[in-house]
Design a protein that fits this description.
The chain is of the alpha+beta class. It has a 13-stranded antiparallel sheet with strand order 1-2-4-5-6-3-10-13-12-11-9-8-7. Helix 2 packs antiparallel against helix 5. The longest helix has 14 residues. The chain is globular, with a radius of gyration of 20 Å.
Length: about 325
């Protein structure tokens, strides 16, 4: 496993080869030593940075990445950029993430000039149109993440979760809800004492942490026992198969007693261009509220929103993935 670099900006720094080619200054990290490929959020973060570097003067508007193959942590990622659009208000970049001559991911990054979002919102209000940039209001909880359970993920991400995450019976109204209507709330940030030297890296930080708690927490959404041998498995109870023990290590492995999982695509919509004041992913906790909207034919669809300290949504995340539930768990599926 590549050596950890303490400084987040240095770890994700990219080197410009020419107008259409970039390479990471360092290899990306695995989520854990036993993983077969680098953490998907790291690929999202560095690919977004490449899009931003290739379009100076713009800030991210949306990001759509498709995972094709697992990336190695032995060599840096290379990025081939196609400039699709350079407009007065928006720019678009098609990016191929390449390693050893093979495409590992590809993505489309759309960026906008600072202030364009506010102008479009004003135009929508003036014309009495629905504002497409608005997101559903999700009541956030009045709790201090620093006083909750905290776990660190892939060296650069911190997550916090409450007792309600550990025990769904503490949220009695969920019992009468369809699983797809249940909102799960955790908290996320970047593990670094100082704010980024370049505040634009707050977007890179959001991309990195946005993949930290979605596909791997289906057991909580579905109200499955954290230990599948507690109710479902035909074999005898095995105390070593309690997923809550894995939370001491990472959200990223919370699922391994219940199903195999793999991300297929990852989308981020950025709702704020006030990246110097609206959010600081190093100093603040972002509230991450999400739902598993669909689970069928081994495919899952997750949608979530990231909120700053004032309760303003700064980003929306949508992810599709594969989830092969083990037979003893799948027999009790209700989503």
């Amino acid at each position: 496993m590549s050596a950890k670099i303490e400084d987040f900006e240095e770890a994700f720094r990219v080197i410009k080869i020419d107008e259409n080619n970039y390479v990471g200054a360092h290899p990306l990290r695995l989520p854990m030593s036993i993983a077969r490929g680098v953490y998907g959020g790291h690929i999202c973060a560095q690919a977004l940075l490449v899009g931003m570097e290739s379009a100076p003067g713009y800030v991210p508007d949306s990001f759509h990445l498709y995972f094709i193959g697992a990336g190695s942590n032995k060599i840096p990622m290379s990025y081939k950029v196609t400039k699709v659009l350079d407009g007065d208000a928006y720019a678009s970049r098609l990016i191929e993430v390449v390693q050893d001559g093979q495409i590992k991911s590809n993505c489309m990054v759309t960026l906008r000039k600072k202030g364009i979002l506010a102008q479009s919102r004003k135009s929508s209000r003036d014309k009495n149109l629905d504002d497409p940039s608005e997101v559903p209001h999700v009541p956030t909880k009045d709790e201090d993440p620093n006083k909750l359970h905290i776990v660190h993920h892939t060296d650069y991400i911190r997550n916090a979760y409450s007792d309600e995450f550990l025990d769904h019976e503490l949220v009695p109204h969920e019992k009468d809800q369809d699983p797809s209507d249940r909102w799960i709330t955790v908290y996320s940030g970047i593990e670094q004492r100082k704010s980024f030297k370049d505040p634009l890296f707050n977007y890179v930080g959001i991309a990195d942490l946005s993949d930290s708690a979605l596909l791997t927490t289906l057991a909580r959404v579905m109200h499955f026992p954290w230990n599948p041998t507690e109710k479902y498995a035909p074999e005898e109870f095995d105390s070593n198969r309690d997923a809550r023990t894995l939370l001491k290590v990472s959200f990223n492995i919370l699922h391994i007693f219940h199903y195999n999982a793999m991300s297929l695509d990852h989308h981020i919509y950025f709702h704020s261009d006030d990246y110097t004041k609206a959010f600081d992913v190093c100093q603040d906790w972002l509230t991450f509220s999400y739902q598993v909207k669909r689970l069928s034919n081994h495919r899952s669809l997750v949608r979530g929103h990231l909120y700053n300290n004032e309760g303003t949504c700064v980003a929306t995340v949508v992810q599709e993935g594969l989830a092969y539930l083990f037979s003893d768990v799948a027999n009790h599926l209700k989503l």
